[in-house]
Amino acid sequence: MPRKRSTYTAEFELSAVKMILDQKRSVAEAARRLGVSENRLHAWKKAVATDGANAFPGHGNPTPAEGELRRLRAENARLRAERDLLERFQVIRSDSGVISALKNRRCMLGEPLRIT
């Protein structure tokens, strides 16, 4: 039977890193005392070194960089949809002159535009 995946609070993770840094304990000793793996403590220590107190935002609370990335991806998707719509209804040139695809109701319903 597989073991249940452990989750830790941000406070626990920060206190574990502080135990290593402030109390000058080795990672192995802190891991034994806390009951977590050494690899996990090294990962937490690295996260605190790079992001400081914002290293563990929690589930559903993205870091500012992740929030900005999510916002930019949504904007990118919206702009692509607008571009595709504009390409679909672009002005079509024919022998008799310029005909706007917006005037043709069939084009808006998804049927191909037929110029006669």
From TrEMBL:
It comes from the Bacteria. SUPFAM superfamilies: Homeodomain-like. InterPro entries: Homeodomain-like_sf, RD_transcriptional_regulator, Transposase_8. Gene3D superfamilies: Homeodomain-like. Pfam families: HTH_Tnp_1 (PF01527). This is Transposase. It comes from Gemmata algarum. The lineage of its organism: Bacteria, Pseudomonadati, Planctomycetota, Planctomycetia, Gemmatales.
